[in-house]
Amino acid sequence: MPYLKLSLVTAAALVLAGCAAVESSTTSLGCMLGRLTQNPPAGCGAPATATATAPGTGASGAAAAQAGERFTKLQSVLDQEIELARSVQTDVVSSMQHLPIKLRSSAGPVKLLDTPITDSQSGQTRSMRTLESMTVQMPLAAKGRPEYTQSMAALKNLANRLADNRGQASIVVHQAAADVQAQRVNTATGVSKTAKGSPVKVEKIEDAALAAGTERYTIQAGPIRGGL
Question: Hey, what's the signal peptide range on this chain (predicted)?
């Protein structure tokens, strides 16, 4: 099952263009990109490289142009998260389509947010398209099958990837009230850590509107905070 990775070329471009420092609760995308390129920005353990002004270009004009370039490159990185979520959703659903109807997964919404992000060098603020969550519905009857196990691993891997990008992520599981009352589902909650130490919170919600025999998994990306 394919997974998108941030390319070192994109990472280097962001760092050299001024280093996006999109702060989450526990980490920053800028620091992550800096570590990938061995060029961490200020606040990540090493001073940032100064950006030279092009000859004949006014300081304010250069700052505005550089800010625009940083916003464009940051949006490209954020788009990779969206593409990853959609790719995982497609793979999960398609991998179970050959099973009997009652054993198939189904796609829910991929929700996006318009997130205001301010460029700290120019003071400009732009609305950036970001991933909020991705949802799939999984049938209880498919548990134990290889397709189900692989799909659950893919969802967990997505949550881990988003947690490492954003600093945190959540897996929210809606469970049918009838299944909860009949003890057909695991209602345990908790927090796990990625290999890099980022927290992934698991929440369970009893849902009277959800059909019995189904669990709805929503992978939520952590919030983006701070500036560019």
Answer: 1-20
CA distance 61 to 53: 9
Which range has highest mean pLDDT (34-43, 71-80, 219-228)?
71-80
Neighbours of 43 (CB within 10 A): 15
In angstroms, rounded to a whole number, what is the distance separating the alpha carbons of residues 161 and 105? 22
- pLDDT above 70 for 125: yes
Q: What does DSSP say about strands 225-226 and 22-23: parallel, antiparallel, or unpaired?
A: antiparallel
How buried is 172 (Cβ within 10 angstroms: 0-12 exposed, 13-18 middle, 19+ buried)? middle
Q: Regarding beta strands 214-221 and 169-176, do their DSSP bridges make them parallel or antiparallel, or are they unpaired?
A: antiparallel
- Token pair for 150: 């692989």
Sign of CA dihedral 172, 174, 175, 180: positive
